[in-house]
Specification:
With about 180 residues, this protein is an all-alpha fold. The chain is elongated, with a radius of gyration of 24 Å.
């Protein structure tokens, strides 16, 4: 088994396994039927908030639902791009896939935080728990991504040691 997986890469792959299918299905339900899809369980807090507090007309509610679907599809697309980039070992080792993961985490955190605030405003405890859990998953992955840097390439000191022996003394007291 390969041991060159970083913790943030593995964590991002696990998050992608959750967010890509879940948010894609939710977004496609909104695309197929905007009002009905907006009132599904994962989006009920957003739907109740815009109907209670914003009091939007039907056409504006449809536009808002499409905006929610677009945001969730964008997050799913960036997670999918991260997984595709993760399959190349050279990209994975150098951290080249971190940008896609970072964008997915940032946009997903904003969507989950806004949904959590809306759920708390309308009193939907089940939706509040769902969005808070998603937000904690995304923030935890973001913290791991920020703290863990890609491994630096190690230089082979055996190659440079003979060149140094001809140029200068290797003993520290011999100056």
């Amino acid at each position: 088994m390969s041991t060159n997986w970083r913790i943030s890469s593995f964590n991002g792959a696990l998050l992608a396994a959750y967010f890509v299918p879940t948010w894609t299905i939710v977004a496609l339900k909104i695309v197929i039927s905007p009002i009905h899809g907006l009132y599904e369980r994962p989006n009920i807090s957003v739907a109740l908030f815009i109907s209670d507090y914003l009091q939007l007309a039907a056409l504006n509610t449809v536009r808002f639902a499409w905006l929610v679907a677009l945001g969730k599809l964008t997050v799913a697309a960036f997670f999918a791009l991260f997984v595709v980039l993760l399959t190349r070992p050279s990209v994975r080792k150098s951290g080249g896939c971190d940008e896609a993961l970072g964008i997915a985490l940032a946009i997903g955190s904003v969507i989950s935080f806004a949904s959590m605030v809306m759920a708390s405003q309308v009193g939907e405890t089940a939706a509040l728990r769902l969005h808070a859990t998603e937000l904690l998953l995304l923030l935890g992955a973001a913290i791991v991504l920020v703290i863990e840097r890609p491994a630096q390439p190690q230089t082979d000191h055996s190659v440079t040691a003979p060149a140094l022996s001809l140029q200068q003394a290797q003993l520290p007291h011999n100056r």
